[in-house]
What does this fold into?
Amino acid sequence: MVAVAGKVAVVTGGRRGLGAALVDELLARGARKVYSTARASYVDDRPEVVTARLEVRSEESVADFARGAADAEIVFNNAGVLLPAPLLTGELEGADEMFDVNVFGPLRVTRAFAPTLAANGGGAFVHMHSVLSWLAGSGAYGASKAAAWSLTNSLRLELAAQNTQVVGVHAGFIDTDMVAAIGQPKAEPAEIAARIVEGLEAGEAEVLADDVTGRVKAALSGPVEHLTFSATG
It folds into this structure.
């Protein structure tokens, strides 16, 4: 279990949406410092927040950022991208970008920060997945989140030896710009952020952040044709 109070955390994609809510929640729970990243430089006036430009698709950018955040103890792999398109007819460039950001991005960040967390006592990685990790019908985005789920579960085994906690987070739709066009009920980012940090501090390996995610996870043992998603509900 990793308590947040007094710790130094990293939140990728922390400028807006769930990432911004995670930064707020960490500070509310007493984090000593939070590195918050975005693709473009920005300013946060709070003294505990250190903003940084980070491109998770670039190994060089990730390595440079990790060197500058050598005091990190908890890393939230939150940065992600959603480019809706059918698998059969959508541009492959979009699918490639989603896999590069949503799968290889967290892997790059985890590889870069694993030695840092080991040197600082173990700490934790928290990876954002989605209820769409388990549902067909969301194209390459869902496929990328399914791959990210598998990646997280394997990293949990590999990082256990250095006493690093690895938390996978699954959530339904959150009221952010990313899913604004999807006609489904949406949770407030602050509510989901609180559940994520509570799960981290409770030592959970996996956080099911809302009721719909719990229902879908329970259905994984049933017929695969029932595991489908419709954007219009």
